[in-house]
Specification:
two-stranded antiparallel ribbon, about 100 residues, alpha+beta, three-stranded antiparallel sheet, 5 strands
């Protein structure tokens, strides 16, 4: 779990500051991240729950299929803009 937290924090830092890098450099733990992914700053009026959801969340389904969920923006009505990216899983015949 510690490794997931490190990758999650790294992804959030890259996205939070909106750094532009080539798509070849935007692979985190084997998961490609779109070079236009960007986490918006939370609105001052947003609830604490919505503020906590903004950012990048990383994990691995079944311990092997790596994935990252990026919550880019949450609008006042609760609708969110997200990016979901997966890595390779040869055992499941999935390619990024």
């Amino acid at each position: 779990m510690r490794g997931i937290a490190v990758y999650s924090c790294a992804a959030a830092i890259f996205l939070w500051f909106g750094q532009t890098v080539s798509s070849a450099e935007m692979i985190i733990d084997g998961v490609p991240i779109p070079d236009d992914a960007n986490v918006s700053a939370a609105s001052p009026s947003a609830s604490e729950t919505k503020k906590r959801l903004l950012g990048a969340w990383a994990g691995a389904w079944g311990g092997s299929l790596r994935h990252i969920l990026i919550v880019e923006d949450i609008r006042p009505d609760g609708e969110a803009s997200v990016v979901y990216a997966i890595g390779d899983s040869p055992a499941a015949n999935i390619t990024r």
